[in-house]
Amino acid sequence: MLKLVVCIKQVPQVSDLPWDPDTGRLKRELAAGMMNPACRFALEAALKIRDKIGARITAITMGPPSAEEVLREAIALGADRGLLISDRKMAGSDTYTTSLTLARAIQKNIPEFDLILCGAATNDSGTAQVGPQLAEELDIPGIAYVNDLEIVGNKARVRRLEDDFIETMEMELPGLATINTGGAVPRYVSMRGFQAAFAESDIVMLDAVSLGLNQDWIGAKGSATQMRNVSSPMAGRENVVLTGTTKGILDQLFMLFDDRIGGVIGKDLKTDKR
Amino acid sequence: MFAEAEIGPIARDIDREARFPWEVVEKMRSLDLFGMQAPKVFGGADMDSISYAIVIEEISRVSAAVGLCLVIHNSICLHPINRWGTDEQKKRFLPEMVRGEKIGAFCMTEAGIGSDVGGVETSATPEGNDYILNGTKIFVTNGGICGTTLVFATTDYQNPRRGATMFIVERETPGFIVGEIEDLCGMRANPVSSIYLENCRVPAKNVLGQPGEGVRIGMESLNVGRIGIAAQAMGIAQAAFDDSVLYSKERQQFKKPIASFQTIRNYLADMATDIDAGRLLLYRACAALDSGSSVREEAAMAKLYCSEMAMRVAHKAVQIHGGYGYSKEYAVERYFRDAKVTELYEGTSEVQRMIISREVLAKRV
Lengths: 274, 365
What we know:
The structure holds 2 protein chains of 2 kinds.
Chain A: E1 3-7, E2 10-12, E3 19-20, E4 25-26, E5 33-35, H1 37-53, E6 56-62, H2 68-77, E7 81-85, H3 95-109, E8 115-119, H4 130-138, E9 142-146, E10 148-152, E11 155-162, E12 165-172, E13 175-179, H5 191-199, E14 203-206, H6 208-211, H7 219-222, H8 246-265
Parallel strand pairs in A: 1-6, 1-8, 6-7, 7-14, 8-13, 9-13
Antiparallel strand pairs in A: 2-5, 3-4, 10-11, 11-12
Helix pairs in contact in A: 2-5, 3-4
Chain B: H1 2-16, H2 22-30, H3 49-62, H4 64-84, H5 87-98, E1 103-107, E2 123-127, E3 130-140, E4 146-154, H6 160-163, E5 164-170, E6 176-181, E7 193-203, E8 207-208, H7 214-250, E9 252-253, E10 256-257, H8 262-291, H9 296-321, H10 332-342, H11 349-363
Parallel strand pairs in B: 1-4
Antiparallel strand pairs in B: 2-3, 3-7, 4-5, 5-8, 6-7, 9-10
């Protein structure tokens, strides 16, 4: 049976991020966690393959112990089991050490995998690097920003939207694809799924020792990049009053804001005749 | 997530248009919401009662009328069939109900009987292997959309209580006529209707439990139903509270958010405390139900408290919103209308107090 691995990440719920207005920092302890949206799409892509041709789906996440919640959610949605990589020594991992750690966990636990699916990007850091780096680390082909895919023989046929083109590509398995939020709409958790997620203990806990990872390779220590500061870009608001004739006001408006208006209506107002 | 994304955008319109959202039913079916506590062998999710109450609260928080549909279907139609039905009846009725292809309803109330169920006038006359049902049921929740119903009737006109019997009746049965949809103050998206039974022939194998057990089955079904109504009231209260917190932080008066005024803060504190107290009573009743003990008192207390609490909270929510709270532009007026009926159906607050006091007095000789 086809063996699928879906990498998912728990991110803070963006709709109500508790920013501290004095320090401009996120009060992480107050932020509720959720499954990163693109990861939901990656899981849905896996479930669609499972529904069509059958597959065993392992969901894997790396994070604090609370990340178990997103694994439970993945199981409720239809994944068969979860792997939780959690270790204080892994705190501060950048994308490089994260992909190294994920690669080791996959090699040790699902060495005969066929396809790894990741969200294209997370909405808390948005580097879009972990998927491609994981493919490199495992020395397998990888395609990023995929909209939908199907399994054809020993290949994955993927489609992705790039600019105004739809690209169709094929990739030998085992391989890796990162999934955009534009594909099949993720399903909701069913009530039977809920029951399944909490009825069975099908989550495996992994730490640095069990993965045989040297402390110098992981976490902040092994990271090639360091986070210096995180702050909220405080959006400023200003009221601008334009006066004059209607034509005069319009000319001023376009002169001041043509790029922003153009962005909304999808036209380059500098070159378009208006 | 489901309720906010799928029901949220239409909650206001279905209330205003008094329209039942069939498009949502389709989606709820795939989530097993029509068989939350039904056994797995019939395709149900076999959930515990606290999980069930949480789901009802979450859906009712967005649309109490949709929550109501699920409470009636799950708690007082499907649940009694599963509890008292024969194996044959369960096999015949449950799978379609669990899949949501047939929505359940409970036909008890008549023009002359509300709280006094022993005075039932709908007659069930034995004829061969059948019963012929005649009478009029009113205020049947889900009436306009029902597929499978429980009908409360009596075989004994002299002593209706002694002959009271519960029948499983399907909508297609000749003589089962769905009347006009009621024009109600709240829960407007639920098609509450009258049901006319005109020489409605029901096979004896559709009797739920034994003939004469109707009052017991009806009352015990309502005990379970009250837990669902309490959960529904919780959802309304939570929605009214959430909107009030948001509004009081945004609304400025005297150049300050009204949430900075002590009076508004006191309101919010009282609302929050009231909601938590109700939720604990509700969960206690759920736990008692799952442990298999009688929940007559616990369910009545939860229903009484949560419904009156929802009314208090919705009342405060309108007050916090001021004139806007009285406008259809904001949702709190809908919560206020929806909250009221939770004090009325499945036993009025007065009936709950009657039940509780009876239990309390019986325990202290």
